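hi! just following up on the protien thing from before. the input was this:
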Amino acid sequence: GGEHEMVTVIHPDGDALLLTHYCMLGNQPQMKAKPKTGDKQVAFDFVRLTNGNPEKDMFMRSVTFTFVDKDTLRTEWTNWHQGKEAGKAVFTLKRKK
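and the predicted 3d structure came back as:
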């Protein structure tokens, strides 16, 4: 219900695993999972940006999902602006019991 709500969808594409991030910035970066990064991590890296220019606009360029334990997921997002890194955002999600 807030002004900064976003949705991220992870979906298969043949043998690949893709991610589309529907950002509050109004663009939709797409990322592809890197080869296996470990049993507890899945890392995605930039493929393309829809509704924006990756050389000029701000967008999320990569994300790593870390399964800390059976009840905890940590995500680390890398933001880009004008063709270079512009910060990180880390979120830790805990399952309610």
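The mean pLDDT is 93.
The CA atoms of residues 63 and 77 lie 4 Å apart.
cheers
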